[in-house]
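look at this one:
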Amino acid sequence: MELQATSVLVSGCTHADAQWMLRHVLPAASAAKVEAVLVAGDFGYWSSSPNLIKVAATAKEKFGVETWFIDGNHEEQPYLA
């Protein structure tokens, strides 16, 4: 997969905090009229955090932005693979 967006909001570590994404990051991206959010490491991709995964998967529909992340040491690497 390749990020095709021409305007991107870059966020720091979200550490699986779906509410932070819903209340702050995605609304800010929508207000700034960017095409994507890029979480720069430590997104929090864990099998035990399905809410965050759902938020990311539906961000395009709800906020008009795609959600991308760079994996870090706070990802469940086997689950991510």
Summary: Residues 41 and 72 are 5 Å apart (CA to CA).
